[in-house]
Design goal:
Blueprint (H helix, E strand, L loop, with lengths): L1 H18 L13 H8 L6 H107 L2 H7 L4 H91 L32 E4 L2 E2 L6 E2 L2 E4 L5 E3 L4 E7 L21 E9 L2 E10 L11 E2 L4 E4 L10 E10 L3 H11 L14 H4 L5 E3 L1 H5 L2
Antiparallel strand pairs: 1-4, 2-3, 4-11, 5-10, 6-7, 6-9, 7-8, 8-11, 11-12
GO molecular function, one term: metalloendopeptidase activity
Organism: Dielma fastidiosa
Protein name: Peptidoglycan hydrolase CwlO-like protein
Length: 461
Amino acid sequence: MKKNMKILMLSASMFVMTLVPSTLKADDFSGQESYYIDFCSRPLQTQEDADTCKAFKAWYREQAANYQAIAGEIGEKIAALEGDISAAGLQVKAYETQIEDLNNQITALEASIAEIENSIVVLEEQIAEKEADIEERDRQIKDGMVSMQSYVGVNAYIDIIMGASDLIDMIRRISVLQDITAYEQGNIEELNKQIEQLNFDKSELDRLKQEAIDQQALLEDQKESLQAAKDELQRVIDELHAQQAILEEEKRTNAQAGSDILSIIPNLSETVIGNYEGSNGFIVPVSGYTISAGTWAYYGTNTAHLGLDFAASIGTPIVAPANCIVAYANNPAPSNGGYLGNWIGWPYGGGNTISLIGEVNGTTYMFSFFHMSQQPFPVKAGDQVNAGQVIGAVGHSGNSTGPHLHFEIVNMGSQSVADVYNWFQSTADFSGGSGWNTSSACSARGWAVPCRERPEDMLGL
């Protein structure tokens, strides 16, 4: 019996040794990082196991240095791309200014055309009135001529002249008759000149209207050409942003592999979560906000944006969206020191960040908070927080363009809060294993977890 027991123990020992070879080369760890991180995070049974983990830790430290170097190279590539993006963006701005100027000119021309059309209507009414007046005057003149002719027929014209008292009176009477005829003729000529002028004004306004229409058509063509150029430039910018997003993902992935998680590998223990209870719903984490950018893409662009941006004043309180466990809390960056290309914080560019893990309606989620204020966090990793409890404040830290909270939600499925917490402590992966691109969206993956949720939908915004 004892002999059989010894054989059994020897077999078990050999089985364990086959699981973890006593002599391993550095290359044997490559591609099995997750296995050895998990293996070395548990209580070890033999000195050989301890030596294996020691060798793995040394190898992993070397890899970390390599990953940091790779991340630095990628950072330089991003900086170069950002220069190109900035140049293209400036050109787009120049085109936008020209397009705005053209739009203003078009608006002015449209107003001018409307004014011309109104003037034409008024002139047409005036012409009609003048024509009626001319017709009336013409009738009166003709009637006067007929009357004069009747007087002439009975020698009334001669009687008027011959009725003069003397030669001077006769000359005066002849002059008066001539003045009457000249006056009527002058009226006719003046009216004809008015008609001619009004007709000219009308034709001139028609010409101006056509000229304005022609100019508007020309400006519309120019606007279309400029818009096409702007669209092309925007396409280039979108492509550059897409390349930047890929490089940023590579940077975060490589930097993540090289992050300082080695110190917790030997002594990782189960986190005590006490009497934790999940929540029945979500709470919006910020009050008094405006949404400055939605999830999946920045407004008006195709540039990936994996969370929801709550724009608010620096110092605005941030609360837990549900009952959670704090998985990560670090504030290395100034509260108001953010700018594009500032990669301080973890994950890269996050500035001051917090990660929470909580269960809502039976599903476990990871909640990420980026660009927070540096003011002392009221919570730390391992703490339990209740929905609505203050965990920090809005800031402008890291890769940020202004004060806001960038908020992300990752669906971790049916895993327990404790399991997800321990997994996070081994990986420091704020993406929850889903990755850093829009293809990780739950809607794109058919809700295969882990996947990214759209915070607007979860919060009912």
